[in-house]
Amino acid sequence: MSFHIFVQQVVNGLVLGSVYGLIAVGYTMVYGIIGMINFAHGDVYMIAAYLTAIFLAALTLLGVQSPPVIILLVLLLTIAVTALYGWSVERIAYRPLRHSTRLAPLISAIGMSLILQNYVRLSQGGRTQGTPTFLDGSVRLFEQGPDQFVQITHAQILIVVMAVLGMGVLWYLMQATAMGRACRAVQQDRIMASLLGVDGDRVISLVFVLGASMAAVAGTLVTFNYGSFDFFIGFVTGIKAFTAAVLGGIGSLPGAMLGGLVLGLSESIFSGLVNTDYKDVFAFSLLVLVLIFRPSGLLGRPEVEKV
Amino acid sequence: MKRITGGGVARWVLALMLGCTTAAQAETIKIGVAGPLSGPQAAFGEQFWRGAEQAAKDINAQGGIQGASIELVRGDDACEPKQAVAVANRLVDFDHVAAVVGHFCSSSTIPAFEVYAEAGILSMTPASTNPMVTERGLPTVFRTCGRDDQQGVVGAEFVVKQLKAQRIAVLHDKDTYGQGLADSMKAHLTTLGLKEVLYEGLTRGEKDFNALVTKLRAVKADAVYFGGLHSEAGPLVRQMREQGLQIPLISGDGIMSETFVTSAGGPKFVAGVFMTFGADPRKIAAGKELVERFRKAGYEPEGYTLYSYATVQSIAQAMRATQSREGAKLAAWLKSNAVDTVMGSKSWNAKGDLKVSDYVMYRWTATGQYEEVQ
């Protein structure tokens, strides 16, 4: 593999990994706080993709021209509405089951995922939808001749930048604000935290809102980059993001991002070096290996049995 | 032991009564229309349904089949083999259809056709091009489209002789149709004395094929053949262009839909993509009047719409001629007689394949339309 091709594959992997990472955050935060896997999260991401297209069309209709303004507005609007979806999902499907068996919310999550998929399928149609290309253009690096270059589109750059930015904001929220402190307290011990005056239900709602917001960022950026989506995109991407969350150590924020990047990079490099048919086999074998040697993932802390 | 409850008995009586009332009315012939009426390939399902619906309407308006009118029954397989078998069983056991138009994806058609053949029901696909559909010795299966081995020949000839490509990459979507098409391309390249530089499969449902595109650059391919559907072909060609790879993409009938432009993210990305498809059925004289009517109703009868129409016509014609609904009799008649359809006269060989296939090459233009390559 020549230098250019290798760098290009690393770029491909970083972009893909950033998307996985952004979605993985939602899985990991929810798991961290209530110990359940929110299977509807991938579909929340899918809804964000549709919302992006809707807002993009609405803004164009209203005559907004400048790309940075459009990006910002679409991003904010999508985050707001997607967050509402995340909040509602928790409120409708998980909160009533808070004190039932561990499996109940899991089944409820699968049901929620089916409901969201079919709701979009019925309201938006089953066809592949698309947005007109909007973030055009690309940059070439290391150009040395007609096919010796590394090409990165502006949308791809935006994905990586926004992923880093989004993670930074989230990290700040969790580490340096009272809200984040409450989250971490509930994560460590929900009963003790509630004894000390932290409203557990509010914190859990907040976690769902934050997770959905990150999925919204991913949904918007992916729509800018790939331009097409259907009601089923949440499934494949959701599974990959969930894998990333487990790989990085479920419950750990930096783990989710790291897991996403490792997964994205391993997929694209394996695809480039060996074979595309088996890239998923490779990615999942990697997951198995990591879990054998580090059962709680790359950055996960082993669960301490509370007595 | 099963206990017969009062409610159960009442239901039986009701069912019997309903049975009587329908029998008293004029006879209807149920024909199943099975395909991806929902899901990512729903665009093709719509083509099927539009064509079949119009055909049934027209035949019924002309007095039906010896006085019996055609009633269509929808069967949605979403292009999933498992669902296709379930749909096939439902059409056979529950709806008691006399014949089936469908399915679309070869991976759905192949298992579903076994169900119909076992029940002795005539089945005709307007679109499944994988050779296996008719290669298994099932007596009651037909298709009104060509076969992938014919499609691959046209594709390979075009790539090698017209495009003068030397380093050809062959990609597929790991599905029966896509891989079958890619294999046929590969086989015919070999007969032309060329070996593909890359042969790999991508995953259906994914959107990011950048790693594969980079690989195409790494192997210095000068043309790409893709066996698959528009939902993957769209993002693939877009990512090729975005990575600065300007080589031509050639595909088969799986991208024959306006949705291909949508999934590529705009007409500018599809410009210069080639595909094989039957000679445009809209240009055949026999279907001129029908095409006009479709357009007047605000629908462009693209892709498989007319194929689906012609399929219903063929079934109706066979039923009229044999005065039978039996799959074996209908099949025997179709294999020895030619049928006049909106796509001209069609006749079938002993396998159920069309005697004449007419694949030609099309090119997508920068306005998101396609035109025949001269």
Describe the structure.
The complex is a heterodimer of chains A (307) and B (374). Chain A has 307 residues and is mainly α. Chain A has a single domain (3-293), classed as ABC transporter involved in vitamin B12 uptake, BtuC (Orthogonal Bundle). Chain A is built from eleven helices and four strands; from the N terminus they run ααααβββααααβααα. In chain A, the strands form two sheets. In chain A, strands 1-4 form a two-stranded antiparallel ribbon. Chain A has a two-stranded antiparallel sheet with strand order 2-3. In chain A, strand 2 (138-141) and strand 3 (150-153) form a beta hairpin. In chain A, helix 2 (41-61) packs antiparallel against helix 3 and helix 5 packs across helix 6. The termini of chain A are far apart. The model of chain A has no long low-confidence stretch (mean pLDDT 90). Chain B is built from 13 helices and 14 strands. A seven-stranded mixed beta sheet of chain B has the order 7-6-8-9-10-13-14. By secondary structure, chain B is of the alpha/beta class. In chain B, helix 3 packs parallel to helix 4 and helix 12 packs across helix 13. Chain B is globular, with a radius of gyration of 22 Å. Chain B starts with 5 loop residues before the first helix and ends with a strand. Chain B has two domains: 7-145 and 284-346, Response regulator (Rossmann fold, 3-Layer(aba) Sandwich); 148-278 and 359-372, Rossmann fold (3-Layer(aba) Sandwich), CATH 3.40.50.2300. In chain B, helix 6 links the parallel strand 6 and strand 7 (198-201). The model of chain B is unreliable at 16-24 (pLDDT under 50). Chain A binds chain B through residues 1-2, 5, 8-9, 12-13, 15-16, 19, 121, 125-133, 138, 140, 147, 149, 151, 153, 222, 226-230, 232-233, 235-236, 267-269, 271-272, 275-277, 279-280, and chain B through 38-40, 42-43, 174, 200-203, 205-208, 210-212, 214-215, 217-218, 220, 230-231, 234-235, 238-239, 242-244, 259, 261-266, 268-269.
